[in-house]
Amino acid sequence: MLAWLMPEQASVQAPRVDAIFLALTAISGAIVLLVVGLVVAFSIRFRRGSKANRDALPSLVAREFEIGWTAATLFVFVFIFWWAASAEIRAYVAPKDAIEVHVVAKQWMWKTQSSNGAREINELHVPVGAPVRLILTSQDVIHSFYVPAFRLKRDALPGQQTETWFKATKTGTFHLLCTEYCGTDHARMLGRIVVMEPEDYARWLSAQPEGDDLAHAGERLFAERGCAGCHAPGSGVHAPGLAGLWGREIPLAGGRTATVDGAYVRDSILQPKRDVAAGYEPIMPSYDGLLSDGEIQELTAYIRALGAGPRASRTPGRPPLSSRVPGAARDRSPAMVPGAPVDDGPAPAGAATRP
């Protein structure tokens, strides 16, 4: 519909966005026509020298009309707000079986890494019909991840993580742009999303150079940076263990609570004294400036893996993370091919409270 006016629709979100846009355009056009029509009609009927009676309408009718017009306008506004807000909120909540992709923006490129370790620059390969969850951050300034055919736009912010998701409905290659002015080569910050049939995607994935997936890379980094000296089971330092921690609501000093998710883990690494877990001293040093955004993503993936359920998939040929971290939960690597089972399961009882 209106192919000459609207870009190609290639995701499940695109029809919703287009419907809102067209509805707003139609309502705005109707209001403009009504106002212009009344102005022209009144200008002719009540022009200078006209014999039209300016007092023909009683004041009661004019007041009722004004009240009805105001109420109708308010109703339309509330309806449009609800409609658009509900569509926007759905863009934040990815399906549980979504493929997880980490996106790091920097001047002037997009770096993507899937949970199985596949890395790309200015490209992202995904299977058609599978939900894809994007976790975005920036290494320098604000960028904006924009795919016109998907009607997808989300800012990548320095020092923060933002999320969005999409499900492609067509195979093909689609433009990836940055729509936030980010410097002199902003216009050249281009990329592409390659949507493939699931079988072709599986073959492409198997042909990628082997490398650590995010969780195993995070496990190695966890040991190299000395995190295991405090957070590993049996450590002499009074610090929380990490097994089974992901997704739990934990108490903080001062009576507040927090949910252990990506944003919380990031804050705990960069600003450890801001939200101190109840029962622990604020002794953890800040790693601000010592870890890159990619390394923080790897550590986050490792902590998430320690809280996975019993039936989560595992990278073939690798021992589970739990076999090298006593007391940890089972390994987790989100399914990269549609249909693979993923189950986060319940968190173990009595697990520690904070990374």
Task: Explain what the structure shows.
With 355 residues, the chain is of the alpha+beta class. The chain folds into two domains: 7-31 and 63-211, Cupredoxins -  blue copper proteins (Immunoglobulin-like, Sandwich); 214-323, Cytochrome Bc1 Complex, Chain D, domain 2 (Orthogonal Bundle), CATH 1.10.760. Helix content is 32%, strand content 18%. It has a five-stranded mixed beta sheet, covered by helices on one side. Strands 4-10-9-6-7 form a five-stranded mixed beta sheet. A hairpin with a 4-residue loop joins strand 6 (143-147) and strand 7. Helix 4 crosses helix 7. The longest helix is centred in the N-terminal third of the chain and has 33 residues, at 13-45. The chain is elongated, with a radius of gyration of 27 Å. The two termini are 51 Å apart. Belongs to the cytochrome c oxidase subunit 2 family. It is an enzyme of class 7 (translocase). Subunits I and II form the functional core of the enzyme complex. Electrons originating in cytochrome c are transferred via heme a and Cu(A) to the binuclear center formed by heme a3 and Cu(B).
Describe this structure in a few short sentences:
It contains seven helices and twelve strands. The chain has helices at residues 13-45, 59-90, 198-206, 214-224, 228-231, 262-270, 293-306, and strands spanning 99-106, 109-114, 119-121, 123-127, 131-138, 143-147, 152-156, 162-167, 172-178, 191-196, 249-251, 257-259.
